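User: Can you help me understand a structure? I only have the sequence.
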Amino acid sequence: MAEAKKIGVLVGSLRKASFNRKMAKALLGLAPAGLELEIVEIGELPLYNEDLESQVPAAWSSFRQQIAACAGVIFVTPEYNRSIPAAVKNAVDVGSRPYGKGVWNGKPGAIVSVSPGALGAFGANHALRQALVFPDVQVMAQPEAYIGNAATLFAEDGSLAVEPVKEHMVRFLQAFEAHVERCGK
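Assistant: Let's start by predicting it. Here is the structure, written out as tokens:
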């Protein structure tokens, strides 16, 4: 049996009890056997500033190494003001530098957007897709995951309590496994 591919999961909300962190943790338990999901923290990354490349912050180095070791990445993000949180964009920027040596180059990716609102953070999902084009993240097109009404989805233990949402996320992860295989990472 082939070894499971390591997949980095980046959580856009920095709140410990956020719906996005709950979704990320739920995904860890729903992953197919061929994927090993691991949360990669982004909250302590210093804001990207090219001047710091001369003495790279330890947090940047660690983050870049973690992402480089992954066969793919899944972003789980809320929507802030119809876009992505600054922490997510900063992580994209830190990983995309130094120019020409970014850790994203050709890496398979997927986006799960989670919101207490009915639209499921649709705006953030598409803003992140746009931000991932130039760094060359191969974002899975289908199925999409816009998860709305997040306050109603989780059991007390953090698991997904709404069966159709759980089933959708299982299918999403299965499709992502196939996407990672197609991308050859």
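Now, to help you interpret it: Residues 163-183 form the longest helix (21 residues). The chain has a mean pLDDT of 96. Let me know which part you'd like to focus on.
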